Amino acid sequence: MAAGGRLAGIDVARGVAILGMLWAHFAPDGTRDGLADGRSSVLFAVLAGVSLGLLTGGANPPLPPERMRAAVSVALRGFWLIVLGRGLWVLGTPIAVILDYYGVLFLVLLPVLFAPRRVLALVVAAAATLGALVVQTVGEDLNGAFAPASPLQWPGHWFVTGFYPDLVWAAYAAVGLLVARSDLGSRATQLRMVAGGVLASAVGYGGAAGFGQDAAAHSNTTWEVLGSGGVAVALIGVLLIACTAPQIARALSPIGATGSMPLTVYTGQLLVLAVFLVVTGGAIGIEHWWLLGGIALASVVFAVLWRRFVGRGPMEQLMATLTDVRRKPPAGLPREQARPVR
Question: Among 104, 191, 325, 333, which residue's Cβ finds the most Cβ atoms within 10 Å?
């Protein structure tokens, strides 16, 4: 466990996802089409589902009277992620912003937020098969995602034609929610995640190779969902197991610090990039080792120092404040004397 009862392995996994996305964004052409491209954003999506589960009680979700408050908090979080994501698109960077897609996913998963795990498994299966079929049939419009669009066009990008179509990506978030409901602190759960993830990945990538199908990054096929989703689940399981060893957890703590504030690091990356493009006039481009190394190092150093001397990341604190729907005691009444309204 990390400080404050956090699962160190989850923070490290988020850090790996964030750094992997930096690699996918800034590494020179020909070097990022391997482990990072596509898989880092899939890992981030699975972890978004894990976060949903942990925010709403993990393996012990609240009783029905408290579930509405938790659902409202999740809905607010989804709304503000959409607002932030659309705002980051306005910066005009050559990055396919993912936050608004995640915000929509939070809203889409509200009806199954407290559903049994078998129902979540059905959501995963439906998104991975039927969702993928719809996306493949309609086709992508990736250039359109960067073009100015009216709000009426946003849902089409979010669900079908964009970089992270939620009809398919709901599978990743739902499997993250499912494992979060399975007690992530349990060694049995962690081992099942590793075994199940490896099996799914073998079926996805092996089946695609055997049947001549596409499982490449962002292909949004059933084969890619199995392959990339399996890698993500297995990696989270491995990191959860590894970080139960104090020495490993300490060694990976800088990555864990970065992963403890993914919204801050992701948003900061795009703001820095927008300034860089303005200063250089776009003449230099963004795919350089020195730019990748500089932003990655600055992200890790900032996260380590902020976590050490301040605590929760600034964007994470802001999001928590904006989505806090807990009952407050009446003014002037000590908190311990407050009584729930009957």
Answer: 104
Contacts of 61 (CB under 8 A, 6+ apart): 67, 70, 114, 181
Q: How many helices (H) and strands (E) does the chain have?
A: 16, 0
Does a structural domain hold residue 340?
A: no
| C-beta of residue 160 within 8 angstroms of C-beta of residue 135 | yes
Residue 54 included in any domain: yes
Q: Give pLDDT, residue 176.
A: 98
Task: Note the pTM of the prediction, 2 decimals.
Answer: 0.91
Asked if residue 338 is part of any domain, the answer here is no
Question: What pLDDT, in 10s, does the model give residues 101-128?
Answer: 999 999 999 999 999 999 999 999 999 9
CA distance 64 to 78: 21
> Structural domain of residue 309, as residue ranges?
3-325
Tell me the C-alpha distance between 128 and 222, whole Å: 5
Residue 163, pLDDT above cutoff 50: yes
User: How many structural domains compose the chain?
Assistant: 1
